[in-house]
Amino acid sequence: MSVASFYHIEDMRGMKLYLDTADRDRITEAARLGVVDGVTTNPSIVTAAGLGYREAVTAIADVVDGPVFAQVLADDVEGIVREARGYQEWADDVVAKIPATRPGFEALARLRDEDVPAGTTVVFSIEQAVLAAKNDASFVAPYVGRLDDAGEDGVDTVRRIQHIYDTYGFETEVLAASVRNTTQAVSLYEAGVDAVTLSPDVLDDHVPHPKTDEGVAGFEAAWGDRGSPIDE
Ligand code: G3P
């Protein structure tokens, strides 16, 4: 296998980077880095932010250029379909997150027929990811950190899902979630994952490097008090 095909270079569509939070200030701050393609939420995140779900989604949609992912709370097919349809009224680009349960997959099939954007979340197995792709899910969200917590290899599970999707040409976006640190994030980038969602803290951890600080300090010391070149 060539290096190019291992890293899916022929097939490169660009990687999406989402923020996993309902904290509007952190979203605004992160968006200024110019790399945020959308925001993912879940009931825990929205509750931690002290917000109602509609309130959170509309507030996020105001400050982010890209999709806002909103998770359904119902656990029966009719309830899931009703919530996913209803979320569409909240903002322009809302994607429903539906857990990988039997009612969840049945609801996904119904929503596909109605062209309601929806994908599969709380994914812990390759089998679930295959069902999502066969259902034309917008995305599939394997939980990397929680797979590791359960004694499995989260990054490797994502790598295998991505390989299967690329092999069959499934268009469902592989959206790695529950990413706890930059080491996991970098392994996911190496695996050629379609998308990752990161907490604002893990995104912030992408920036600093002590050698960068050292390098910049050295240049500043060399330049001394000569002022900005633009003022010369
Ligand atoms: O997107 C899912 C994510 O928020 C779950 O993360 O750290 O609770 O496993 P964690």
Automatic annotation (TrEMBL):
<keyword id="KW-0704">Schiff base</keyword>
<comment type="function">
    <text>Transaldolase is important for the balance of metabolites in the pentose-phosphate pathway.</text>
</comment>
<dbReference type="GO" id="GO:0005975">
    <property type="term" value="P:carbohydrate metabolic process"/>
</dbReference>
<dbReference type="InterPro" id="IPR033919">
    <property type="entry name" value="TSA/FSA_arc/bac"/>
</dbReference>
<dbReference type="Pfam" id="PF00923">
    <property type="entry name" value="TAL_FSA"/>
</dbReference>
<protein>
    <recommendedName>
        <fullName>Probable transaldolase</fullName>
        <ecNumber>2.2.1.2</ecNumber>
    </recommendedName>
</protein>
<dbReference type="GO" id="GO:0016832">
    <property type="term" value="F:aldehyde-lyase activity"/>
</dbReference>
<dbReference type="GO" id="GO:0004801">
    <property type="term" value="F:transaldolase activity"/>
</dbReference>
<dbReference type="InterPro" id="IPR001585">
    <property type="entry name" value="TAL/FSA"/>
</dbReference>
<dbReference type="InterPro" id="IPR013785">
    <property type="entry name" value="Aldolase_TIM"/>
</dbReference>
<comment type="similarity">
    <text>Belongs to the transaldolase family. Type 3B subfamily.</text>
</comment>
<dbReference type="GO" id="GO:0005737">
    <property type="term" value="C:cytoplasm"/>
</dbReference>
<comment type="pathway">
    <text>Carbohydrate degradation; pentose phosphate pathway; D-glyceraldehyde 3-phosphate and beta-D-fructose 6-phosphate from D-ribose 5-phosphate and D-xylulose 5-phosphate (non-oxidative stage): step 2/3.</text>
</comment>
<keyword id="KW-0963">Cytoplasm</keyword>
<dbReference type="InterPro" id="IPR018225">
    <property type="entry name" value="Transaldolase_AS"/>
</dbReference>
<feature type="region of interest" description="Disordered">
    <location>
        <begin position="211"/>
        <end position="232"/>
    </location>
</feature>
